[in-house]
Amino acid sequence: MAVDLNLILLVVELMLLVPTLLLLVLGRRETEGRQSLLKQMASTAKMVSRQEYFNSVQFGMQNATKSIAGSVTGSPPQTQEQRDQVNGIVEQIRRAKVRNITVQYLLPKSQDRIAVASKYRAAEAEVKFHPGLVVSDIRYMIIDSKYAVLGLPSAAGDNEPTREGYLIPSEGLAQVLLQQFQEKWAQATKYEDYLQEVLFEIKSHDPNVSNRLLSQQLEVPESDVSKMLSVERTLNPNLTK
How would residue 153 be classed by pLDDT, with cut points 50, 70 and 90? Predict the structure, then answer.
């Protein structure tokens, strides 16, 4: 009789074990699904915030009547969305210049920012590089000295693309940012001078590198490379062609 009771208890335990295991599996799947959903929601929220920032930038540029001054990261675009955003700004720069609006951009003095700077320069914006912007976690644009567009990354000091943006119609804030911009602008290096500096540095280590390869690596027009090197070659006749 004792044997039969143990057998019955064992069968009952096995019967209870099966639904317990099923509940554990379902609970794990639910947790994984919840985490995946949260990640998708966070990604969507970031995308919307970033798009709103660039919408604010383009809206401000479209409505500018006198001047546009921006201090931005100039990070090379990694996705098609980011490339479209850079191209959209380039188009707005061209349209602003047609309206005789002064367009100035400050970028961090870093070699990987030359590619975006080249696009802005080709659209006839004035572009300079400042080493102090490398560690800056705020991006801003001042429109007509009256409006400010602020952009913030997802974390302080982060070098990622802008995640959130704000268009603020405050002349006081615009003047504060404009003063900071003008101070850095006076200290900054012109696009042409920095490109020449980088090219000369590369050439000093590899004199035989071709202009085409330099153009591809830096993502700037080959004509810019040739022009800068021709000036450098005038100053340094020993530089290899």
Answer: low
